[in-house]
């Protein structure tokens, strides 16, 4: 082989090696695969589409509202702008069916989230990210209580797989924890409303729009991790790609009349992941009866766009085509 | 309707050609104990893998490499990565693998097995 051929071969190998550099995007850190979670946002940036996410639950009534069946149909498109920076757009169509009134429906406000992954440890299957959520006020329909003001939510995301536990605890290695902590700050402290009494008097109300601490976690037991890296227990398909999961999605207002009162749900469920999509379903169990006494349901079809058409969906303005983000 | 079904089959298929590779099963089985030394380690992936950058090695409990260094992809089955082993004394062994799938994505992992 001539010197030129050797040089050419070396160059090709180098180029291929550079091209094949693994991108630790959403869902994979080291050998750990994290699925997209249904009730809480996961810590990864991604090229993905949730379509649809369907939620249904009967909500308890309040002083001025009857018990209502709520059905939400949501979609969220996530796009990487660089290997570690991503943006997502989410929309929800709400259908509210009160017990003693007619059904109303409409879009809730548009949600935009910018997320940046600032720490990754493949060895410890750990990932940290910062995010900023923007609930775009006035883009939804007031019939379904979409707010007329913006909401800004700085967020901290984390993901931790327990594959680095000692061998004596090997059956715990498929466990993983993800979480998000956020503070939803309304751009308007009070919303002024006018009510005209029968006497003709106009009553002006200025209820406080509370700042809300939003916190959520997911506990996952990845059966694919168990089979491939810890112990082959002989699970057949589709069980070998299932992840039993429990999510907690909680909110605690930090001001206003409900300050300190936490609401939310515990969601046990299951996620199955293939190469191009994942399917998930969870029960929505309220932690108290402030919002509901009934168990609801949350289901999702989630497409991995980066794996379906990587040349198109992983293009980024400054980093070109990133390629698929993870093995599934 | 047929188109819809075709799309559904494509999306739900566990092992389509051209997507990146994920381990499916192996010999010796992950985490198992063998009565005798295995002649080789074989790992089957759920997608085709590229030979150039795909590797597998086996280490003993002292982290010394014990395989014969002939890791290769089976020429008749490019989802199978294997490496030969000399007769192994009883003990715990760990297999480290790294593969590149046809779409250019790298996956890596490890698992252990024991020889009685």
For the record, the CATH class of chain A is: Mainly Beta
- The residue ranges of chain A in which pLDDT falls below 50 over 5 or more consecutive positions are 7-26
Q: Which chain pair shows the most residues in contact?
A: A-B, 34 and 34 residues
Helix-strand category of chain B: mainly beta
Quick summary of this structure?
Helix content of chain A is about 10%, strand content about 50%.
Q: Which structural traits does this protein have?
A:
heterodimer; A: 328 residues; mainly beta; Porin; 12-stranded antiparallel β-barrel; two-stranded antiparallel sheet; 4 helices; 10% helix; 48% strand; globular; B: 116 residues; 4-stranded antiparallel beta sheet; 4-stranded mixed beta sheet; 1 helix; 9% helix; elongated
Structure report:
The complex is a heterodimer of chains A (328) and B (116). By secondary structure, chain A is mainly β. Chain A has one domain (3-321): Porin. Chain A has helices spanning 3-19, 223-230, 305-308, 310-313; strands spanning 28-29, 32-33, 48-59, 68-80, 85-98, 104-107, 110-121, 126-136, 151-161, 175-186, 193-196, 202-205, 212-221, 242-253, 263-273, 277-286, 296-304, 315-316, 320-321. Chain A starts with a helix and ends in a 7-residue tail after the last strand. The model of chain A is unreliable at 7-26 (pLDDT under 50). A four-stranded antiparallel β-sheet of chain B has the order 1-3-6-5, with no helix packed on it. Chain B has a four-stranded mixed β-sheet with strand order 2-8-7-4, with no helix packed on it. Mean pLDDT of chain B is 85; it is low at 13-19. Chain B contains one helix and eight strands, in the order αββββββββ. The A-B interface holds A 13, 16-17, 19-23, 31, 167, 170, 224, 227-232, 237-238, 241, 274-277, 303, 307-308, 310, 323-324, 326-328 and B 10-16, 19-23, 25-26, 29-32, 46-47, 52-53, 100-101, 103-112.
